[in-house]
Task: structure prediction
Amino acid sequence: MLHLIDSAFFAAAVAVMASTGALVRPVVSFSPNWATISLHDSVTLICNVGSTSLLSQRYSWYKDNERIKGEEQNFRIENTEEKDRGNYKDNEKIKGEEQNFRIENTEEKDRGNYKDNERIKDRVILQAPPSVYEGDQLTLRCYTPNYKAKYTTFYKDNVNISSSSTDTVTLVASVGMTGTYRCKTLLQLYSDHYSPYISAEIVITIQGKSLCLALFLLDYGINVCRHRL
Result:
């Protein structure tokens, strides 16, 4: 059985307060920055507050509206399990930038004799960032959690965009790269035999450049990030 953390409904944000009482709007990022992560992998949530003159900060992490352990800038989930399912968000008083993820169950089923190029659910997983902006690096990974693989090909709208001996390709994102992606790789199912398998398709939308503004109101400094589409 194969379990996945898939994109949607896993919201993460953090509340940050300084000794001066100033409020800083945080932006949460993830490492590795995949929208789909296999169960039993590890993921780190990172609170990015940008440059600030505040000397001391306290980080508070919440899951399903309840405070959880963790007062550091980084919150790491080791060996992800079903119990990690839930909504992770900020303090109600301080709204942070949210990233969305959901833990899902998927099960690989034996079907006996497989034809070449037939996609077997979850043997090959195309991983991509949860959000991509114009000018960012777009990294794609053709992930095979249970098998050795070689000779990977990436497709956009059924057109070959990259062939590689590794499972990863990095491109510079542009709005014109919005489309439907999939990957194909050779899996070693037996000691001396490789067979081609194809991932499920995912839609990747390249958004406009992000615009970050720093607003300073009276004695309160607020760092705000907005995305210009």
Notes: The chain has no helices and 22 strands. The radius of gyration is 20 Å. The domain at 2-106 is CATH 2.60.40 (Immunoglobulin-like). Residues 53 and 221 are 9 Å apart (CA to CA).
